[in-house]
Write a structure and sequence with these properties.
Number of domains: 3
CATH topology of the largest domain: Immunoglobulin-like
Radius of gyration: 31 Å
Largest sheet: 6 strands, mixed
Number of helices: 9
Oligomer: single chain
Helix content: 10-25%
CATH class of the largest domain: Mainly Beta
Strand content: 35-45%
Structural class: mainly beta
Shape: extended
Length: 546
Amino acid sequence: MPSFNPFTPVSGRYTLFEIRLENDFIVFRGNEHEAAGQLLKGTVVLCLSAPLRLENIHLKLTGTVHYTWTDAKVTATGISTHKVDKALQILEHRWPPFVGIGAPDPAGDGSRQQTKGTTLPPGNYEWPFELLLGGDTTESVEGMREASIMYKLKATIARGKLLHDIHAYKQLRVIRTLDASALEFLHAMSIENIWPNKIEYSIVVPQKAIVFGSSIPVEMRFTPLLKGLELGDITIKLLEVHDIILTSQTGHSIREHKKEREIDMWTLSVSREEHWRDIIDGDNGPEGWVVDTSLDLPKKLSQCLQDVNTQGIKIRHKLKIVVALNNPDGHVSELRATLPVTIFISPNMPLDEEGNLVRLLPNGASREAATMAPPSYNDHRLDQLYEDIDLINLHSPIGGRSGVSSPLLGHSRAGSTDNLPALVQGASVHPDLLAHRLHSMSLEERHRNASWNSNLSAAGTLPRTGTSNAAHAGDETRISPPPSAPLTRQNSGDGPSGSSTPPEHVDFPQISELSRVPSYQTAVKTPVRPLATDMFDLPDYETALT
């Protein structure tokens, strides 16, 4: 039996002690009055290489609001400063101990608790935990020095008197995103006005709600009313307004801090050759300048925050637009306008522990798909699948090698004669015909894999120069499909599908660089990229059959 001395160092007795969450962030859709509760689930993991004597192992969740800033006031004797530094706890939850004192007695019926410490033998241990967070839970605010709202999980191995406890920490981010039916997705922010005898203008932001880390589209139209008037540079600033109020226990305001910071600035040069249109709107509209642009937002919470109004912390954003007007007599006028926008964090673009985006929007993704909050899984988990299709023909090819066909062999079938626009417009396809085509694609994939394997065995190595195979990667990024024939397949074969477009060379060393496995530290700090259905439990078997 191995000996155990409780006063020996403990650093070599455990190799891992950490908190693992199913999702590093909890998402609430809608405000605190309409959002549903969300389940926090995770596991406390402990790996021991030697026996460990302990009193218990417990877990605690805390949410804290921290206010800190310095007020400067001008007095008769000079400038006096007053520092505000206050922390309030808005959430605290303690789980019952997993083992040791206070934990359920394994020898009893579950109602009795252990009253003594225990010694854990070497091995791997996991203790799951969960907590239902109410829909009114305050969202996280990070990246601002004057105020912050943070949630932290703390697991502790209590070792008793004269011994150091062991702790593990995990940050939890609470996100409150807009509901898919929020008015901010439907309302456009616009300014339309006339400067008499000078210019008629229209400035529009098509959608008030903007996803954090994405871009703000701006559409501007200008019609001159003065002969010889020219447009100069257009300057756009994104301003972030902070309004922090610290209240007493009775609800009276005792401190207030206001601040406005410039997030970013863009300067657009306007010329007649590039932006002048004979008709700027409709078929019979007036002539003038058309300026459309997209303003890229920062991708770090330290540089730009989301809109917030909670716990006395109010953050708002607005676009300040200044248009220079060059008059015929030589003097310069300025047209100024301000448009409010709402920046929110989308679960589709999660953040890491430092508040940086870890997944960006794919190239070519539509603006609507990028800005909409994901739908609730409960609204779609009972959706009926498409019927009358032989499911056997939908299975993936047996023995297929996914690494072979991507990205060297493009999945895009730009050269085929499938009438994809006709399918999008709603042309009906018979189920038998659809199943036959899927089966044919499966056979073609097997044939390509077999040809590829035979080429590898014959050549031994892969050519490192851009060939016709490299063109397929470029086919997938084209914005519009090429003209296609009617809804038939005419000798599409297995040849290169990108022959109708110039080849786009791919640097194979870059592909090998992208396929490198990250280090363990990088992997564990990267949030899990869940599907929309991962936040909810799947229906049971009986429900699925109904």
